[in-house]
Sequence to fold (414 residues):
Amino acid sequence: MGNRFKDLFTIAAGFFVIMLVAMFASNYFNPTVGLCTGIVMFVLGLIPRTGEKGVLFDTISPDLTAIANYAGKYQKSLYRRMLTGMSIASDITLISNIKHALNLTKLTINNGPKPYTGNYKSKGNDLEYSGRVLSVDAFQRDLSIHPAKYRTSYLGEERGPGENVENKRIPFAQFTNEAIIDENATKLSNITGWKGVGKDKFEAYDPATAYAVGKLISFPLDDEVNYFKVITATNAGESPITHKLKFEDANALAITVGLGVRLSDGRASTDIKKVVSTGSILTGTYQKMKNVYRAHTDADKAAYVMNMYCSITALEHLMDDYEDLVSKYTTPDGSIIYLPGTNRKCIVKPVSWMAGSEQLVCTPKSNLMMGTDLLSDMSTIGVKTNMYTVDLGITGVLGFNYQDGDIITMNDMD
Fold:
């Protein structure tokens, strides 16, 4: 009833204002002008005030408050959007509430039963505890917006009236927030999550050094250390300031060590011992995937349903390889769910974050881990108003690792 009364009151007030304006126009000009003015205002009043279709209304151009309010009111929606964008969080096991590090304990039981002797005699190495550490590192995403710059863009009309220092209006609060979340989630998943190397792998820039393609360097820029990857060989003295096009922003790689690097390091150190030589997986893909799965022990095959993690490109080559032979293992559209020849104990798991990789990793989902404190931290946007700019910020912690190298089989590719 309250809303209905409010609507009726608004309509009545609108008609009253139209009548006053029409009477004024009639007295000041003539009755015909007054009538036309009233009709025009009535028709304009019928146009829905969506807040995003015109420039006559205050709600047309979301201001800074709208940015902050949207981030708060729709935090659950932004969280779901972030989780969808950061697919690695759902593809492996998420461990939350980690402030710094979590010990991943592995128990190895040595020895075994023996013929009966009647005498109790244990061995000192029956139980062997070892483990890896799931550590998390802090990241932040800083984004400074200069609202006045919208004035000269095609969004200028959405700025509303006035270009004084108080106008902090940013067009389309929802779009802006969602775009920030999408960008953050994609980079944390596809770059940091798989390829991240951590800050220690970056060498401090030396102006006397000529750097080869692929070299990782740290370089002071804008009063803080930034991280770069060399994409074109440099000469001595060429830096990210003097020769920008020879360097690529690699800050996302410096946040923490990604899962792909952890697995490659485990293979190199023989912590992961079951490694199958495949060469390129873009030919003979089915047989090579099957070889990687069958490198597991019989006991592990019986105990676990494995995921065969691979790139989407690898999946496409698998489907091409056995397009006519695997129909009973596929859904109606031909998508392979289980790797044929594994008794439905191996799920083919193509993931976007392995794009460009020819690595095959076969292990239970529970054995690959992503650590964080609260995943929702990554969808919480902080907002601060300055004199001429609006600062947006996101912070959180993130880390990746595997728990037990003995139940991982993988190939020899990167």
Notes: Residues 46-63 have pLDDT under 50 and may be disordered.
